[in-house]
Design brief:
With about 450 residues, the protein is an alpha/beta fold. It folds into 3 domains: about 70 residues, Winged helix-like DNA-binding domain superfamily/Winged helix DNA-binding domain (Arc Repressor Mutant, subunit A, Orthogonal Bundle), CATH 1.10.10.10; about 110 residues, Aspartate Aminotransferase, domain 1 (Alpha-Beta Complex); about 220 residues, 3-Layer(aba) Sandwich (Aspartate Aminotransferase, domain 2), CATH 3.40.640. The chain is built from 17 helices and 17 strands. Strands 5-13-12-11-10-6-7 form a 7-stranded mixed sheet, with helices on both faces. A 3-stranded antiparallel sheet has the order 1-3-2. A 3-stranded antiparallel sheet has the order 14-17-16, covered by helices on one side. Helix 12 links the parallel strand 11 and strand 12. Helix 7 packs across helix 14 and helix 15 packs parallel to helix 17. It is globular, with a radius of gyration of 24 Å. The model has no long low-confidence stretch (mean pLDDT about 90).
Length: about 450
């Protein structure tokens, strides 16, 4: 068995943090297994032409992160790691933390007022089938007709019979993957992708291949090479700003991806949860390859977070598979929430909330541009977040830990990576998850951290 060793050519200053990060990645991707013994401090120092003190500091940093343990007289060993991945966001928001880690739309009291009015309307207009029926085909025909209207606002023409109502985008993703890629098959996606995709693929028994991207997103040539190298069954893409790097894919790129998929007869799964929020965007990839694209959109991130309803559009070849897999994984979407979504599409509330959200995000991004002036980052005026590349002085873990100690929660870039390579540390920062005043203060803390020299994240008690 090959014994993993750090790559001295990839060490950056400060060397102890860079070494610690290399070892942490090797543990995370399984190159260093639970219980594996690390070289002694002196042996590691000799192998990498570092000082023993530098290696000792790297090991101390890994012990602080809970990744390794030192046993007197025996050596240093990789600790047993939990198998479940940690979410990129804080599970709960402590009162003293500005939470920029979770991807949320901007919300104000008007959103609660809209939901209260919708519930009052529902109390007077609830159809008996929404409360009493077990059969999706009885509950949803009218809702699919209205869904087709909303999908036209997303740039997609779809027959109502090809639309499934889902409990949001995560439900749609699960059903789409189950329908397009049987267990044991391979799915391609961006190298930096949806944070739930890696664990979801694992749970479904799928192999995930992360592919190269540029400022527009997934490269067609990378998908072409992947299809030639292995039996790819589907490609998962997020072409319209919701991807971690906030990239907007142009029309020519979308058409090129569709052509590669058609040439190799693979399915496309398109996550377009922001839908009409992104103004002046090209049509969805599904419009270029309707015969093979499973298209996902939802209301959660563009209207009110509690409206956990979405649409999954499937081509004819996948309609039966989608219906069956939706039945076994969800049975059907929550009828009461579907009634509210349908009502809001019909009376214009959904479009009104989308327009409101767009303007609110424009204000948030103006704040970011002001506070982060001179700092390179990636964003879009209608994205819910920004992507912040970190300088070689900072490791992701150290930067996220320092931000947290200073009262700001952000998401590490590693949560979105689908490949083992980690040469470009970064962080995702939500702009919609808190108030404008807190966003300004939180971004100010981040700007100050970037201007400072890295320090160990010591916890003072």
């Amino acid at each position: 068995m090959t014994i993993w060793r750090p790559d001295p050519t990839k060490l950056r200053r400060p060397a102890y943090l860079s070494l610690a990060d290399q070892i942490a990645r090797a543990i995370g991707n399984g190159q260093l297994e639970n219980g594996a013994q690390l070289p002694t401090h002196r042996r590691m120092a000799e192998d990498l032409a570092l000082s023993v003190q530098t290696v000792s500091r790297a090991y101390e940093e890994l012990i602080r992160r809970g990744l390794i343990s030192g046993e007197t007289g025996r050596g240093t060993f990789v600790k047993s790691q939990r198998r479940e991945p940690a979410p990129p966001y804080l599970p709960e928001r402590p009162s003293d933390v500005i939470d920029l880690s979770i991807l949320k739309p901007v919300c104000e009291p008007l959103h609660v007022d809209h939901m209260k009015r919708a519930l009052a309307w529902l109390a007077e207009n609830l159809p008996p089938s929404a409360a009493l029926s077990f059969r999706p085909n009885v509950v949803f025909p009218r809702h699919r007709e209205v869904a087709a209207e909303w999908l036209r606002a997303c740039g997609l023409e779809a027959a109502p019979a090809n639309v499934s109502v889902t409990n949001g985008a995560t439900s749609g993703m699960t059903v789409a993957l189950m329908s397009a890629a049987p267990p044991g098959s391979t799915v391609a996606t961006e190298a930096i992708a949806h944070h739930t995709l890696v664990p979801l693929a694992s749970y479904l028994g799928l192999k995930l291949v992360g592919l190269a991207t540029d400022e527009e997103g997934l490269l067609p040539d990378a998908l072409e090479r992947a299809c030639l190298a292995s039996a790819i069954r589907a490609v998962f893409v997020q072409p319209s700003v919701v991807n971690p790097m906030a990239s907007l894919m142009g029309s020519e790129r979308r058409a090129a991806l569709a052509e590669v998929a058609r040439r190799h007869d693979i399915a496309i799964i398109e996550n377009d949860v922001l839908g009409p929020l992104v103004a002046d965007r090209p049509p969805p990839v599904a419009a270029y390859a309707p015969e093979r694209t499973l298209y996902i959109t939802s209301f959660t991130k563009i209207t009110v977070p509690g409206l956990r309803i979405g649409y999954l559009v499937a081509p004819d070849r996948f309609v039966a598979a989608v219906a069956n897999r939706h039945l076994v994984s969800n049975w059907m979407a929550t009828a009461i929430m579907t009634e509210i979504a349908t009502h809001w599409v019909t009376d214009g509330t959904a479009a009104e909330l989308v327009d409101w959200q767009r303007e609110a995000l424009h204000r948030r991004h103006r704040i970011a541009a002001e506070v982060l002036n001179g700092i390179a980052y990636r964003s879009h005026p209608e994205s819910l977040h920004l992507w912040l590349p970190l300088t070689c002085r900072w490791s992701e873990d150290a930067f996220v830990a320092h931000a947290r100690l200073q009262g700001v929660g952000i998401a590490p870039g590693s949560s979105f990576r689908t490949t083992a390579a980690d040469d470009n540390p970064a962080a995702r920062i939500s702009v919609g998850s808190t108030t404008e005043e807190e966003l300004r203060r939180g971004l100010g803390t981040i700007a100050n951290l970037l201007a400072a020299d890295p320090e160990p994240a010591l916890l003072v008690i």
